[in-house]
Amino acid sequence: MKLRKLIDIVFALILLSSMNAVFGQTYSPLSSSAGKRIEFNSENCTGFGTPDYKCQPLKVRAYLYEPKGEWSALVMASHGAQGIDQRVFEYADALTKNGIAALVIDHWSPRNINIRDYSTATARGGTTSNIATDALWAAEHLKALYPQVKKMGFLGESMGAMAAIQISRQRMTDLFNKKMSPKSFSMPFSAMVGLYPACMERIEGEKFINTPFLILIGDLDDATLAKDCVDHQAWTNANGGNLKTELVPGAYHDFDAPHALQYRQGQNISKCTYVVSGDKITIVASGKTLPNTLSGLVQLPRECAFTGFRGGHGADKFIAVPSWLKFYELHLK
């Protein structure tokens, strides 16, 4: 009996080793209790980019994971619409195993956000701009706590990835210069990665910062289209940015989600690409125009979103990890 148990264990180890050889390294979600809980001052804002923009002070919590030994690089991990789940803690495992500290931020809990539709979330502050705002305030907090940090990065999935797009816009740097005045503000991130974002917003006359930025999106994504992110690369780089979009072959939306590929009844915003021109928002697919106000942003998903998309991981849940780890190795170490 003991011999059979030993054989089973050896077989399991051989199987795991062969899977790693085929699919690459695997990672486990680090528990929130294993991280150092950190609270920092942020804001809950509505109407970003419109005349209705206003903010209220907010305390946000995060979990810090440190690699073994000395470290000087840190990456912030931001979740998507579903809120914090195991994938962001798997990101922390991958980062710390490669000598990079990770800060996992819980953006929704302090805002009491449970996204069922994007219009309701937008009205209450469940937005990509607030995820970006949290990350930038967290960076200011960590600079004071951990002076050994020489370089910081940002990693977001889905809505978190769209927050990376917000951070890449010059207007976010300009906004924080105003928020922090008379103190000076400098962009804290030396590299950013966005996983399967919706590259849906284009603002006439906008400029981008030159921070290295990598977007990884599945070529079969039917919720946030790869073509839109390829187009966004050209738009960004023509206006001062430093973006590279890479397609993940055979992957759908949420290609590193806790669940396997399945049809989901969530909101699909693949037809919601829009252009902002002054006081007007124009939805590209329909030509419908909305005011560039908080009410216009709230109405936007109601005009273009529909139900249903395919999402989840395939045979290799960690298919994109080598690409983004290599990117951080290049820019943070």
Count, helices: 9
CATH architecture: 3-Layer(aba) Sandwich
What fraction of residues sit in β-strands? 25-35%
Average pLDDT, to the nearest integer?
Answer: 92
Contiguous low-pLDDT stretches (5 residues minimum) are 3-22
Give me the CATH superfamily.
Answer: Alpha/Beta hydrolase fold, catalytic domain
In total, how many beta strands? 14
Percent in helix: 25-40%
Helix-strand category: alpha/beta
CATH C-level class is Alpha Beta
Q: Nearest-angstrom radius of gyration?
A: 20 Å
Largest sheet: 8 strands, mixed
- In total, the number of domains comes to 1
Shape: globular
CATH topology category name = Rossmann fold
What would you note in describing this structure?
This protein has a single domain (29-256, 312-332), classed as Rossmann fold, CATH 3.40.50. The chain has 333 residues and is of the alpha/beta class. The chain contains nine helices and 14 strands.
Briefly say what this structure is.
Helices cover 34% and strands 26% of the residues. By secondary structure, it is α/β, with parallel strands linked by helices. α2 links the parallel β3 and β4.
